[in-house]
Amino acid sequence: MTLTRRHALLLGASAAAATAFATSAQAAEPPVFSAAKSRLSFGGEYAIRGTDPVGYFTEGRPVDGTEDFTSDWMGATWAFASAENKALFDADPEAYAPQYGGYCAWAVSQGYTASTVPEAWHIHEGKLYLNFSRGVQRRWLGDVPGNIANGDANWPSVLG
What is the pLDDT of residues 18-32, one digit of tens each? Predict the structure, then answer.
């Protein structure tokens, strides 16, 4: 077979893509998803994009945290709306932190990680689950027990 210039270019592009994929596949994700939240007045990256994890349980909704009340846990900075919420979290972080390190529960159930938004949340049997979007959350809610079983089987190996 004769190697044409077109074949050589395609082969080179394929090799570059394979190398990039292999490099990204080998990079391990941190155990807690952290990102900046643009509407916060303080900078930096925070777990749940700066949303107070305790607020989901005490107020039944996402509540913005503040830089005045923060804790470091599992390699991430967590923000809280009040000293009381910070104290609750500090006393038992696993009771309030989202499952799967705050990565999208649907994605973890499917074998990969994805970012989340604070507005796509669900508490099931006392545990907080976050999703990439409300649209993805609808898929998650279609079979919560099955998705949790799959997510538990995949976690934490999906981190890489």
Answer: 333 333 344 699 999
Q: What is the arithmetic mean of pLDDT over 116-120?
A: 96
In whole angstroms, give the CA distance from residue 50 to residue 63: 9
Angle (CA) 135 145 78, round 5°: 65
Q: How far is CA 85 from CA 48, 67, 127, 136, 152, in A?
A: 15, 13, 16, 28, 27
Cα 139 from chain centroid (whole Å) = 17
The Cα–Cα gap between 154 and 26 comes to 17
**75: its two tokens:** 């390699």
Per-residue pLDDT reduced to its tens digit, 63-114 = 999 999 999 999 999 999 999 999 999 999 999 999 999 999 999 999 999 9
**Residue 93, preceding peptide bond in cis (omega within 30° of 0):** no
160: tokens are: 């890489």
The Cα–Cα gap between 1 and 6 comes to 13
Q: Which tokens belong to 136?
A: 């993805």
